[in-house]
Amino acid sequence: MSCDSGKKLCGWITALSQLTVAACVLYVGFLANIHMERMVHSWEVTAEAVHKMQQDVARIEGDMRVMNQGVHSINGNVGTMQNRMSPMGMMRGFMPW
């Protein structure tokens, strides 16, 4: 739009339209900033949750290792008792060799 220098109304309309465009640009920037802050906060919460899961998995692996050692110990004891309670195991005390 081209304004002649004598028309004040045209100048005011041009100034208001430029202010409106500037306000729209600022508002969009404000909305983008809010959105980015929420995304960053969401990523931080997700990172904390993943870190907690990693710690839980490490703790579970440690517990499983301890349980596995206990099972091996029980299996060894059961194997020893099984050998002692078998017919040949009971007869070992009576055999001279």
Low-pLDDT runs of 5+ residues are: none
Main sheet: strands, sense, barrel:
none
Number of strands: 0
Structural class: mainly alpha
* Mean pLDDT figure: 84
Helical amount among residues, as a percent range? over 70%
Using the CA coordinates, give the radius of gyration.
Answer: 41 Å
* Order of helix and strand elements from N to C terminus: HH
User: What separation lies between the terminal Cα atoms?
Assistant: 119 Å
Q: What fraction of the residues are assigned to beta strands by DSSP?
A: under 5%
Number of helices: 2
Spatial shape:
rod-shaped
Describe the protein's topology.
Layout lengths: L7 H78 L1 H5 L6
What brief labels describe this structure?
single chain, 97 residues, mainly alpha, rod-shaped, 2 helices
Short characterization:
This protein is mainly alpha-helical and 97 residues long.
Describe it.
By secondary structure, this protein is mainly α. Helices cover about 85% and strands about 0% of the residues. The protein has two helices and no strands. The protein has helices at about 10-85, 85-90. The model has no long low-confidence stretch (mean pLDDT about 85).
